[in-house]
Design brief:
With 895 residues, this protein is of the alpha+beta class. Helices cover 48% and strands 20% of the residues.
């Protein structure tokens, strides 16, 4: 049978996981215990073998050390040094009688020839050359005693190792050596005694190897001087340099053994203790078998439990899953499945109880499916129309069909009447629906109680419920004895409730109330949808109107067309440029509209054709043209762009005609700034340079008056240069909005006199008229003086040599009004609006003669506005008049 649940939802898998959650920590604990205890046992065994090897090494070192001390003592004897046999014989005889482990003592001369040995024996080797021996070669390189490798002595024909002491005279001359052959059989007897103590341990071995890897000592003396490969692994001798002293390796005869070594200090011999791993770690092996047996038993018990649980619980549940799913989907089940359910329902355990519950659920689901179908129809009704009355009537119709009720209504607050009235109903009389009006101030009303509580409120019997006594006649007249009020939860619609009436006393069940709440929610959705649709439609219209107003208010021309090049939309500015009305623009070809605009251009035909083609080529392209607007020239940048939908598909083209006249004007002003400032700076610099050069000339001697005149000219031109730089700095601060004012109480008359003094009057008349009892003026005196000085200097500069300058000051409401006038040629009326622009100068001969950078009035305007005042050209019949106001009290400046 196919499994009906994913692995993470399968009860069998979950139980198995739970079992594993229990067994795995237990097994891990056993394994850790086995590992820790096994490791401790291994360490104890290795420590024991290492201690034994070290003890044997110490004992061997002691025995060999005694032999080395012996030959070192012999080397000091005069008879030995002299090589006198008569003196060496008694000495060597004593040694052999006291040292049973020594079988031969002898003396070699400096060339390695045997001078004497004891016992002399039948096979004397006196006179033979032994310089080829390894110990002789080593004796030539040291003054300390040493031990040779194991060998067969030719004198005694026994396995020996020689303890050697080199002989040197005080002058460093090598005299030969004295040696004693140590019987290796004596060392083997020592090992045999140790071996007997461990005879009960199966496979126990102990062996001593020399530096050449020969067996020096072994309980079986027949293996003496054999290579270690007879007892140890072939590469074991190569591992002696490794730090690890205990190692498990394959044995020569098969199996594995634990090899433990200990170095004999000073003589490069090594003691090796070994035993089979089965004997060495027998305790660990037994413990591991116990652990594995316990783990296996625990696993088998768990598997038996899981198998039983699978057969008795999991498989029945798995079989119930598709049956339960079919029941949940209101699908029929086979006869076999029905028989299975009946059989399993007889079980007295929880599975039987579960199956009985499923059978009961089957009957309940049939009823729920009917309810769901009705609710689905209700949902369809809600979304099928945005007409509120139609949707509410459909909901009530479905509700009556499902619940078998005949009287119900939806009641909502009427904002105009201020009372709750019926919006839709079924089964109620016309008189009742038209006359029913519930005021929000009726707290004992069932409808108001439900709305205030936010939950359904019912009256099971209108005749016995005391809270309904006032409305009892209404219930009798309409013919209902019970009612239920269900509030509709709405956010955007007025308060609304669902009323259900029953002709007999009736207690609404939880199931009935829940169904009615669902219908109430659908009704709330219908009302909300209708309200939101109405509001969204209004908002969409408002947004469209605002967008339309925004596009129509653009200073730039905009035209949108379809893929055929026909105009779909054009704003008001475009119509002005093309001299066409909105009605004439609709449906007109973009090329024709563009042609009408280009007809106003005085540009070359090449520029016009290039502008005409940018729309035809498609994509994002630009071109620039100029057209005439009366006496004014307008510069336009034409920008084309593609119009795409949300999927990026091309649906049209767009053309934007951007007015860049101000940008061109800015370029003109920038060029004017460079030209004017260069000229204005060059003129005073030329004067300063010329007169300074004249004064510095060595071939001319100038009198005192000439020098003073030249210096005054240099000083005046320097002041002029400084004023120009200060004007440019002030203008830049004003444009950047960082100009700071220090407002204090100003003496207006003194400020005017300081400004006039700096203006350098020549033969001109200057008049000042102040209104009596002027209130105190709080302003920045330096900036106010700069304004007055610039205005007076302009009057003197442009008014002519005999101009009369007049300043009038008076109070005007909450400001002080200044008039600076002259009787010169004046300012043309059509230029009065531009004289305050930076670098702007009147185009006449007088202006050209006066010079200047065209910054004075622009600076005056910036300083006056920084004070919060206004400045303008006051028209008059003769001469020019500039008027400005300064507020008496500080207020926010305009920028």
């Amino acid at each position: 049978m196919r499994r009906w649940f994913h692995s993470h939802q399968d009860l069998g898998i979950q139980l198995l996981a739970l079992y594993l959650l229990l067994i795995v920590p237990f097994l891990l604990t056993l394994l850790i215990f086995d590992g820790l205890v096994g490791q401790r046992i291994r360490e104890d065994v290795q420590t024991s073998d290492l201690s034994l090897a070290q003890a044997i090494a110490q004992e061997t070192e002691l025995s060999i050390g005694n032999a080395l001390d012996m030959v070192a003592g012999l080397a000091k004897h005069p008879g030995v040094i002299a090589g006198d046999p008569s003196k060496m014989e008694p000495l060597f005889e004593v040694i052999l009688s006291t040292r049973p482990d020594v079988n031969l003592v002898y003396r070699l001369d400096a060339k390695g020839t045997m001078l004497y040995h004891y016992p002399t024996g039948p096979g004397s080797t006196v006179g033979e050359d032994f310089s080829f021996r390894d110990y002789f070669q080593l004796a030539l390189q040291t003054t300390k005693p040493l031990v040779s490798q194991g060998r067969i002595s030719p004198t005694t024909n026994q396995a020996v190792a020689t303890a050697v002491m080199p002989l040197w005279d005080p002058g460093g001359k090598f005299l030969g050596l004295v040696g004693a052959n140590i019987k290796l059989e004596s060392l083997s007897r020592t090992l045999a005694a140790i071996f007997s103590e461990h005879e009960s341990e199966q496979g126990f071995q102990v062996v001593i190897l020399d530096s050449a890897g020969q067996i020096i000592a072994y309980p079986n003396s027949s293996l003496l001087l054999h290579k270690y490969g007879d007892l140890l692994p072939n590469n074991y001798f190569d591992r002696l340099h490794e730090e690890e002293q205990a190692r498990i390796l394959p044995a020569p005869g098969g199996g594995e053994r634990l090899y433990t070594r200990a170095q004999i200090p000073g003589i490069q011999w090594v003691v090796v203790v070994s035993r089979p791993t089965s004997a060495a770690f027998a305790t660990q092996i037994i413990l591991r078998r116990i652990v594995l047996t316990a783990a296996g038993t625990f696993i088998l018990i768990g598997l038996f439990f899981w198998l039983t649980l699978t057969l008795q619980v999991i498989q029945p549940i798995e079989r119930l899953a598709p049956i339960s799913e079919s029941i949940g989907l209101n699908q029929s089940i086979s006869q076999e499945e029905q028989n299975y359910l009946i059989k399993q329902a007889r079980r007295g355990d929880q599975i039987g109880h579960l199956i009985r519950s499923i059978l009961h659920m089957r009957n309940s689901i049939a009823e729920r499916m009917k309810e769901q179908a009705t609710l689905l129809d209700t949902s369809t009704a809600v979304i099928s129309s945005l007409e509120l009355e139609t949707v509410l009537n459909r909901i009530l119709e479905q509700m009556g069909r499902l619940l078998s009720i005949h009287m119900y209504a939806i009641i909502a607050l009427d904002d105009q009447e201020g009372a709750f009235r019926i919006r839709a109903s079924r089964g109620l009389s016309k008189q009742f629906t038209e006359r029913l009006a519930i005021m929000p101030t009726e707290p004992d009303s069932v409808t108001m109680r439900a709305l205030h509580a936010g939950q359904p409120i019912q009256v099971s019997d209108t005749e016995t419920d005391p809270s309904y006594s006032i409305r009892r006649p209404r219930a009798r007249a309409e013919g209902y004895r019970a009612l239920l009020a269900v509030p509709l939860h709405t956010n955007h619609a007025p308060p609304t409730a669902l009323l259900v009436f029953h002709p007999t006393p009736h207690v609404f069940t939880e199931n009935e109330i829940q169904l009615l709440v669902n219908f109430a929610n659908h009704a709330a959705m219908a009302i909300e949808n209708a309200i939101l649709f109405e509001r969204s439609d209004m908002q969409l219209q408002e947004q469209t109107r605002r967008l339309e107003s925004l596009v129509q208010s653009l200073h730039d021309g905009l035209i949108l067309s379809n893929l055929d090049g026909k105009t779909v939309y054009a704003n008001r500015r475009l119509g002005v440029m093309a001299h066409l009305s909105a009605h004439e623009l609709a449906g007109l070809s973009v090329n024709k509209i563009l042609g009408r605009i280009l007809s106003q251009s005085n540009d070359s035909e090449k520029v016009k054709k290039a502008a005409q083609k940018i729309y035809e080529k498609g994509g994002d392209r630009t071109a620039e043209i100029s057209i005439s607007d009366g006496e004014r020239r307008i510069y336009l940048r034409l920008e084309t762009f593609d119009v795409t939908d949300s999927h990026g598909d091309l649906i049209g083209r767009g053309l934007l005609l951007h007015d860049i006249t101000s940008d061109r004007e800015l370029d003109r002003m920038r060029a004017s700034l460079i030209s004017t400032v260069s000229h204005e700076l060059r003129t005073p610099l030329a004067s300063i340079k010329g007169y300074a050069t004249t004064l510095l000339a060595e071939d001319v001697q100038w009198d005192r008056d000439s020098q003073t005149e030249f210096l005054n000219i240099i000083s005046n031109e320097s002041d002029h240069l400084s004023d120009l730089v200060n004007n440019i700095l002030d203008l830049s601060r004003i444009d950047a909005g960082v100009l700071r004012l220090e407002r204090v109480q100003c003496n207006i008359e003194e400020t005017i006199q300081r400004a006039a003094k700096q203006a350098r009057f020549n033969r001109n008349r200057f008049e000042v008229h102040l209104e009596p009892e002027l209130p105190p003026l709080y302003a920045d005196p330096i900036r106010l003086e700069s304004v007055l000085r610039n205005l007076v200097e302009n009057a003197l500069k442009y008014g002519g040599e005999n101009v009369c300058v007049r300043i009038d000051v008076q109070q005007q409401r909450k400001s002080i009004l200044f008039h600076v006038s002259d009787d010169g040629p004046g300012i043309p009326t059509d230029e009065s609006s531009r004289v305050f622009e930076s670098f702007y100068r009147l185009d006449d001969s007088l202006t050209r003669l006066a010079g200047g950078a065209g910054l004075g009035l622009a600076i005056c305007q910036g300083l006056v506005r920084a004070h919060g005042g206004k400045i303008w050209v006051e028209p008059q019949e003769q001469g020019a008049c500039i008027a400005f106001t300064i507020p008496l009290r500080a207020r926010k400046a305009r920028r």
